[in-house]
Amino acid sequence: MIPAGKRAAVIRALDDEGVDYVVTDETSGREYTAVATFPLPTAAVEPVLERLREAGIDESTYTVIIAAETVISRRFEALEDEYEEEADHAGNYISREELQAKADDLASGLRTYVLMTVISAVIATAGLLLDSPATVVGSMVIAPLIGPAMSAAIGTVVDDEEMFRRGVRMQVLGVAVAIAAATLFAFVLRTLALVPPGTDPLALAEVSERLAPNVLVLVVAIGAGVAGILSLMTGVSATLVGVMIAVALIPPAAAVGIGIAFRIPRLVVGAGVIVAVNVLSINLSALVMLWYEEYRPQRWFREDNARAAFVKRVAVLVAAIAVLSVFLGGVTYDSYVASTTEADIRTAAGDELAALDSEFELLELEVERSGTVPPLSTERVIVTVGAPPGGGVEGVADALDRRIEATIGTDVRVEVRLVTIDRA
């Protein structure tokens, strides 16, 4: 819509850009004198809109951007060639107005958002307790978490404080609702004995993998954030990317609920750290990606505000992730120590048994570790030894104890269990 007095400036701007256009008179009122319609390659949308802003077309006027399936025009082909280099650089990214509109479209109503989050968390909780990866994946498909995560980042770079605050509020609400729904559902299952009495959630693979997060969770979250914002910038469907973001948030939030309901503090802490790190990393990667691709506020004098907000929020996110990464790094190091220690003990036990009796066979090795702060210390080693009928293991425990302690350099209790092996 061309405001009164701006018609000549708008037409001149379109002519200078080499754009095909149609201008029709507007007779519904005196505020607007004409309507201009013109096709643009995706890479040309932002530069041409910027030129029109200089001509007097701003957010106070009506500008509608729609996707065109096909444009048949030689002048349009020339325009595509002109912006081809820019398209290669910008990756055919959409304009900031389209980006804001897409973020708004992803933000569902509060009632729908809460309801879908509750359903997703309940299904994820059931999937974890069933130890069913397929069910857990299904819960992610319906989780509506991509919108708030992207809105907070977009609101920062375009200096839309309301969009940023709404995105943050909705993210906090979504995580809180997911944990609360998972806790209540798991508690009901436990109270009504809908899960077998004495069930240990930590014995389930889908739950135990959320118990001790390592630094690889950062890779998942950062990748989800970058993929999410790229899906919006390129106009690609965000549905599949939304699943990726839900992968980082819904299952660990459900694991926190299970930990609360079953009174497993270790699970609450471990899964809680995953949720916190993932939320922060998704926001950080999306924010940095948007700024790197040069999305800025519409008005130049608001760039300083956006830059200050960007620096401040990136600093807060990096600091928070760094603090939580100490825990992740500790768990990663502990996993490394545990695996190398067990391998050393297994080798030492096998060699010692072979030296004691060639018929002794190492059947199973279990290493128990204790402590609260990684790396945990090795407390007890249980060695299951296969021996021929009539064979004894007198003195084997002492020999293994000496060999294992010499290998790992610390005191440890060794328990030997004898299994008779009779082969025909």
Mean pLDDT: 84
Lateral arrangement of strands in the main beta sheet: 1-3-2
Instruction: Count all strands and give the number.
Output: 6
Low-confidence stretches: none
Q: What is the end-to-end distance?
A: 93 Å
- Give the ordered list of helices and strands: EHEEHHHHHHHHHHHHHEEHE
Task: Sum up the overall morphology in one term.
Answer: elongated
- Structural class of the helices, strands and pairings? mainly alpha
**In what range is the share of β-strand residues?**
5-15%
In percent, how helical is the residue content?
Answer: 55-70%
Q: Gyration radius, to the nearest Å?
A: 31 Å
What about the largest sheet? 3 strands, antiparallel
- Give me the number of helical elements: 15
What would you say this structure looks like, in words?
The protein has 424 residues and is mainly alpha-helical. Helix 6 crosses helix 9 and helix 9 (161-191) packs across helix 12 (239-261). Strands 1-3-2 form a three-stranded antiparallel sheet, covered by helices on one side. A three-stranded mixed sheet has the order 4-5-6, covered by helices on one side. It is built from 15 helices and six strands.
Provide tags for this entry.
424 residues, mainly alpha, 15 helices, 62% helix
